[in-house]
Amino acid sequence: MAPVKISIIGAGSAVFSMRLVNDLCKTKGLAGSLVSLMDIDQTRLDGVHDLALRYVKELGGDLRFEKTTQLEDSLRDADFVINTAMVGGHSYLERARAIGEKHGYYRGVDTQEFNMVSDYYTISNFNQLKFFVDVARKMEELCPNAWLLQTANPVFEGTNLVRRCSKIKVVGFCHGHYGVHEMVEALGLDMKRVDWQVAGFNHAIWLNRFNYEDKNGYELLEEWIKEKSVSWKPKTPFDLQLSPASIDMYNFYGQLPIGDTPRNGSWKYNYNLETKKKWYGEPWGGADSELGWQWYQERLKTITDAINYLSNNKSIKLLSLESYLKFLPKGSVPEELKQEIKVFSSPTALSGEQHIPFIDAIVNNNAQRFVINVPNEDSIPQIPKNVVVEVPAIVDRNGWHVEKIDPPLSEKVIKMYLIPRMLRMEWALHAIMNGDKDVLIEMLIRDVRTKSYEQAVGVLEEILSLPENEKMRKHYNDREKL
Ligand code: NAD
What contacts 21, CB < 8 A, 6 or more positions away? Predict the structure, then answer.
C-alpha cells in the first residue's frame, strides 16, 4: 500500500471526478492517498469536494482531499496529474461552431475529415492546447517525476503536443475501446471468451484481432450483418458501434472501427443532417449532428442538476440508489444514468475509467491490461516512431509494455485513414508550435466545404476576433513559438 498525491485538473467535471473518487475508494492499495481537486469554477469545485467527502465517509474509505483554484498548489508534489479541464467550456465550442456555420462550415471549422467529434477541436482550440502545455511545463517545476494522464480532448493532438513541448511522462486516456464490449454483447457472445486487440490513434482505433474461442469472430460479425443489421436502431445518439456507418467503414477498410471511430468517418457520412441520419440512424443522426449534440448537452445538464441537488441536500445517502431516483423525474431515468448510479451505490463496482487502475498498476505493481495512448515503437511500422498511438499494453511498476499488434492493421486502414489523420495532427501542431496562421488557412483550403480563399480567411479572422481569443490572436499575429 502506497499513498500518493493525485491532482485532478478541471475537477468540476463532476461525473468524471466522482468516477475517479469511486474507483479510488474501492482500490485498497491506494488507501491514504491525497486527492487534490483543482478547478477555476469555485461553485463546481465546492460541489464536487462536498460530494467526494460525503461519499468517502459513507463508504468508509480512507482518502484525504484538498480543493484549490490555483493550478500550482494542486500540482506541487503530485505523483499523478489527471487533466480533464476544458478551457472556455462547452459555450466556447458552441460560439466557435456558430461562426463556422455562418461562413458555410456545417458543424464548425473544427469538424474535419476523420475528426468529426464535436468537442475535439484542433483549429480554433488554442486556449485548450496551450493549457495542456502550460500544465506540463508547470509540472516540470513542481512535480517533475509525476505522470500526466491526459484526458481532456483532443487527446491525440494534446498528447503529441505535450511530448514535443515538455519532458513530462504523459499518457493519453480514453474509454473508446469499450466499443468492443458493446459489439460483442450485441452479437450475443461472452466477452470472457473473446481474444481481441485494437490499434490506431485516439478516436481512430480498429479491431485488428477478433477471435471467439476457436472461431474467427469476424465470421460471426458477418452473420450478424447479414441477419440483423437491417433491424438495427440506435438506443441513444452514441449507440453507433454497429451503425450503418460503422458497417460501411468495415466493408471499405476490412477491419471494424471501434468506439468513437465510426463518428470519425469521412464526409460520406457527414455532409448534412439527412446524410447523418441515413448512416447513424434516426432520429438523431449520431452524436455529432445538431440533434445528437443537443441531446448530449441536455444529458450533461441533467447530470449537473443532479449533482447540485445532491450537494445541496446533505441528508441524502449517496450510497442509496433510491435517493438518486427520487430526484429524477418519474419514468424518465435514462438507462446509462441508472448504470452510473448503480456503480456509485455499489460497495465494490468500479467505473470502467482506466485512470485509477493504471495508477494502482504503477504504484503497487498490480499489473493489468489497458488501452492507452503512448509513443509508437514498432506497433504500427508504417507510422513514425514517437507519434502517439492508442494500443493495448500491460502496465506494471516498470511502466507500459505494448502488445505486439497481431495481425497487423489492414493496408487501407493505414493508407486511407491513419496516415491522413496523422497529417492533420501534424498540421495542427505545426500551426500552434510556430504561430503559423497560414497553416490553419491552408487546412481550411483543403476542406471540401471551402469554396474560396476569402471564405477560409474570413472564418478564421472572425474566430480570432472573439474576446476570449485575445492570446490566440497575438500568438498567430506575432508568429510566437510555443
Ligand atoms: P466541462 O466543461 O463540464 O468540465 C470541464 C471543467 O474544466 C469545468 O469544471 C471547468 O470549470 C474546468 N476548467 C476550465 N478551464 C480551466 C482551467 N484553466 N483550469 C482548471 N479547470 C478549468 O467539460 P466535460 O464535458 O466534462 O469535458 C471535459 C473534457 O474531457 C473535454 O475536453 C472532453 O472532450 C473530455 N472528455 C474526454 C473523455 C475521455 O475518455 N478521454 C471522455 C469524455 C470527455
Answer: 35, 52, 55, 56, 63
Q: Of 253, 274, 291, which closes a domain?
A: 291
**pLDDT tens digits for 269-294?**
999 999 999 999 999 999 999 999 99
Closest to 288 measured CA to CA, from 248, 242, 241, 240: 240
Centre of ligand 1 from the C-alpha of residue 23, in Å: 19
| Selected catalytic residue, list 260, 288, 360, 447 | 260
pLDDT at 303 over 90: no
Domain that holds residue 450: 419-477
In this prediction the pTM is 0.97
> Ligand 1 pocket, 131 CB below 6 A?
yes
199 domain-assigned: yes
Pairing of strands 256-258, 215-216: unpaired
Last residue of a domain, one of 272, 291, 310: 291
User: Structural domain tally of the chain?
Assistant: 2
**Residues 6 or more apart from 325 whose CB is under 8 A from it?**
333, 341
> Is 260 among the residues known to form the active site?
yes
Q: How far apart are CA 211 and CA 209, in angstroms?
A: 7
Question: Residue 369: CB within 6 Å of ligand 1?
Answer: no
E-only strand ranges, 134-216: 147-150, 169-172, 194-201, 204-212, 215-216
Q: Is 195 inside any structural domain? A: yes
Domain assignment of residue 259, yes or no:
yes
Q: Residue 127: CB partners within 8 Å, gap ≥ 6?
A: 87, 88, 92, 468, 469, 471, 472
Residue 304, in any domain of the structure: no
Average confidence (pLDDT) over 41-45: 93
Is ligand 1 within 6 A of the CB of residue 156? no
Please report, to the nearest 10 degrees, the dihedral formed by the alpha carbons of residues 242, 243, 246, 248 taken in order: 120
Range list of β-strands (E), 188-293: 194-201, 204-212, 215-216, 256-258
Residue type, 307: I
Nearest to 52 by CA among 303, 318, 352, 304: 318
**pLDDT tens digits along 101-139:** 999 999 999 999 999 999 999 999 999 999 999 999 999
Cβ 25 vs Cβ 343: under 8 Å: no
